[in-house]
Amino acid sequence: MIYALSTPPGVSAIALIRLSGGGCIDVASRFLEKKPLKNNQALVTNFVASGSVVDRVVVVAFFAPRSFTGEDMLEISCHGSPLVISKIFSVLDGAGFVEALPGEFSERAFINGKLALNEVESIADLIHSSSAEEAGLIARSFGGSLQKSLYSMGEQIDALRYRIEASIDFADEDLGADDLLLLRSGIESLLVDVRAFVGSCHVINSKRKEKRVLLLGPPNSGKSSLFNRLVGFNRAIVSEKPGTTRDLLEQTALIDGVSVEFLDSAGIRTSDDEIEMLGVEMIKDFAATADAIILLASVENIVFPESTLKDLSFGGLVIRVINKIDIKDFGGLGNVKHDYLISVKSGEGVADLIRGLKQSLGLSSSIDKDVSFSIRERHMSSLKDMLGSLDRALENCVEGSEEILAENLRIARSSLDFILGKKYTDDLLGDIFSNFCVGK
After folding, report:
1. Which CATH number fits domain 2-111: 3.30.1360.120, 3.30.43.10, 3.40.640.10, 2.40.50.840?
2. How many angstroms separate the CA atoms of 348 and 414, rounded?
3. Does residue 9 have a cis peptide bond before it, meaning omega lies within 30 degrees of 0?
4. Domain ranges of the chain
5. What mean pLDDT comes out for the span 404-424?
6. At the topology level of CATH, where does 211-361 sit?
7. What is the pLDDT of residues 35-84, one digit of tens each?
8. Could you tell me which CATH class the domain 117-200+370-434 is placed in?
């Protein structure tokens, strides 16, 4: 029996703990005042340990095989207090549960036949999708018409194989000219379907990553305020006191449906505060991975830390922004080179900055509007292998032995099975599930 926290760690309103394994509902029910009896129905009850109520929880039971993993499953929604979560984990540990490995729930779903391997991969791709358009495409690829297309191609291959293998197994059923014509027609039709399917697929780039934008500038230039406006909520503490931001804050936000990671840095200055200076030093490591730096200055002190850029050896996109233009009579800009004038407080100029950032970073989807499915590179490689085998099988209908024709059809089916996970290597499974979150 396994358990895991399926929501992000830390303080939150709600935390979700998942359990899976034969008998897990009965074992966990020892600590519930009310035992869940119905499948897929929420029950409000108390989680109790050593005679004391740990928390008021909501539990949902999924009895095997009607669950995500195909096993008994229980989901416990508790309050998102680390103390509450830790106590429930301690109780589960004592009851014989073990903490799940990354992707272990999905791996059990695959092993128990609840999901094909490509469906499991779609779950991971959806979680890590980098744009709204890509997420929508992956969601459409999860089950439904994608699986129907794959299984339909498999059924067509099987029908062709059965006909040719029957003639091999029974000597009195040699293929005649009409039979070969039917086989040829069937393979040609299948080739049309497979090529159309390949043309309707978007291949996810395995090396894709979110764009990273680092905010850099002197203290009180408005970096944290701009950071909060870019990510859409008050993620960073804003204060008039210099040095408020000592660590690097990271937050992902969507710009026109494309995921961008923003980093708010400590103000660049000389300080006696050891913690603050450590934060400044961390900037060097993050700058090496940034796609762009927003260099922010204030009209109160229009000084861009150009020397810091040299120290960082940053050769990427630098956008120079002057903030606080809402201040009256600030004395003018002089000859200071800049790209944008903004007021984070009023919002003036921020939309122009975002549009410029989007254009400079190329934040637009490269997905063709006509595609229907999202697949991985390994899926496309297998589909191309399948096409090659079917092309060779088509040639065998004109010349070549029936055994070679049957073998090429078998290889074509094997390529399709590799996509679905009916054939796989341990290394492949290890690579897939090692990239999953714990609790999924």
Report:
1. 3.30.1360.120
2. 59
3. no
4. 2-111, 117-200+370-434, 211-361
5. 89
6. Rossmann fold (3.40.50)
7. 998 999 999 999 999 999 999 999 999 999 999 999 999 999 999 999 99
8. mainly alpha
Q: Report the candidate in 48, 55, 74, 60 with the shortest Cα–Cα distance to residue 13.
A: 55
Cα(412)–Cα(170) distance, integer angstroms: 23
Tens of pLDDT, residues 325-369: 888 666 666 677 888 988 888 888 999 988 888 888 877 656 666
Give 412-417 contacts, CB < 8 A, sequence gap 24+.
Answer: 412/157, 412/386, 413/154, 413/157, 413/158, 413/161, 415/382, 415/383, 415/385, 415/386, 415/389, 416/150, 416/153, 416/154, 416/157, 416/382, 416/386, 417/154
Strand order in 249-255's β-sheet? 249-255, 258-264, 211-216, 292-298, 317-323, 340-341
| Helix 144-169 vs helix 117-127: crossing angle, to nearest 10 | 160
Is a pLDDT exceeding 90 seen at residue 195?
Answer: yes
What tokens does 337 get? 């080179």
The CA-to-CA distance between both ends of the chain, in Å, stands at 15
Q: Residues of 3-16 as b/e, b for ≥16 C-beta within 10 angstroms? A: bbbbbeeeeeeebb
